[in-house]
Amino acid sequence: RATDHVRIVEVGPRDGLQNEKKSIPVATKIELIERLAQTGLQTIEAGSFVAPKWVPQMASSAEILEHVLDTPPRSPRPITYQWLLPNARGLDNFLSTWQSRNTLGQDGYPTPPPSPGTDGGPALNTSSQDPNAMPSASSGAEAMDKERGSSKPNIEISIFTAATETFTQKNTNCSIAESLQRFEPIMARAKELDIPVRAYVSVALGCPFEGNVDPHKVARLAVSLLEMGAEEISIGDTTGTGTAPKTAELLKTLSAAGVENSDLAMHFHDTYGQALVNAVVALEHGIRTFDAAVAGLGGCPYSPGATGNVATEDLVHCFHSLGARTGVDMEMLARVGGWISEELGRENESRAGKAVLAQ
Ligand code: HMG
Ligand code: MG
């Protein structure tokens, strides 16, 4: 039903900022995340553990993770922070920060012993997928959180591959099959540590190098990634060349291949101005998770000419008009979009955001 809750994954701090040429101070990145966390958004992709030679802007992601783990949350509900990584090296870098917070928990509180069957992963609350759920006070750490009136963030990781060989080579310097091989040890380790894994499939609606993409290829990859243990597949229209009919065809093909709508998120870039139309097609198909970037920030460094994601403000405005609930405060979100656009010295790409700010 259109009145359902729609979960928005705010990818602005990662997808939005990764392509900015001028180095952005880490304090600005952290402030962006903090401001977004106040708007009612519950899932924020906060950075990536990729090679800094390839994407220098994301080199400060460990500092951002430290901030997230060390700072008592100010929002009443736990926020889920996601971290993109391409290989075992990325996972190691992520884990060295994550595990450094293991012996002493946030604010110096000792974390309780690991639950049986794990090898000592920190006691972060990674269990709740329900956007409205509050953490239960069943474990020692959660009870301590309750006592001091805060809730720990949920931490998740994202892996990424693509539907064409050329894009996969350009983006991650390997074949599609090699990218899946790289994921095996990541999945195994994440499972041991009880860290949920999301997986992206890029260029699902068109490739800058190979053109049209066979939807069956996307579906086969989605099935493989789910079988490997991914909890959610984010289907990326990296180039923004997706259209309403192409989106409908892809979603039908995914359903026919046995991929449940609840296993999917749609990730539309807005290069041709079709992202909102495509999102509504996906909403009508039954998809309830969408990626978006505040102020329409961004672009992929390996997709020449592609612009940012659909603006979160535009998506929220559109979904609210259809009776869907997002939990997001549109005015607060619009202010964040205006602020970050000014900070970066770029045009605010959200039409709805600009309209709200002009009121
Ligand atoms: P490579 O050159 O094949 O890897 O890159 P390598 O193993 O030969 O390593 C090269 C150097 O990077 C070495 O350092 C490694 O140690 C280091 P050196 O010895 O030269 O000093 N290295 C790393 N450093 C930090 N973190 C790591 C890491 N791995 C190696 N994880 C690699 C392979 C995958 C690393 C590289 O291709 C890479 O980092 N690619 C990232 C590309 C990227 O971030 N793209 C943007 C994100 S995807 C996207 O935007 C699409 C999405 O939004 C969905 C959509 O819109 O479709 C998700
Ligand atoms: Mg993207």
UniProtKB/TrEMBL annotation:
Compositional bias ranges of the Polar residues kind: 124-139
Family the UniProt entry places it in: Belongs to the HMG-CoA lyase family.
Originating organism: Massariosphaeria phaeospora
Gene Ontology process terms (BP): ketone body biosynthetic process; L-leucine catabolic process
Annotated protein name in UniProt: hydroxymethylglutaryl-CoA lyase
Keyword Metal-binding: yes
Pathway: Metabolic intermediate metabolism; (S)-3-hydroxy-3-methylglutaryl-CoA degradation; acetoacetate from (S)-3-hydroxy-3-methylglutaryl-CoA: step 1/1
Enzyme class: lyase
Keywords assigned: Lyase, Metal-binding
The keyword Transcription is annotated on this UniProt entry: no
One GO MF term attached to the UniProt entry: hydroxymethylglutaryl-CoA lyase activity
The enzyme's E.C. designation: 4.1.3.4
Catalytic activity: (3S)-3-hydroxy-3-methylglutaryl-CoA = acetoacetate + acetyl-CoA
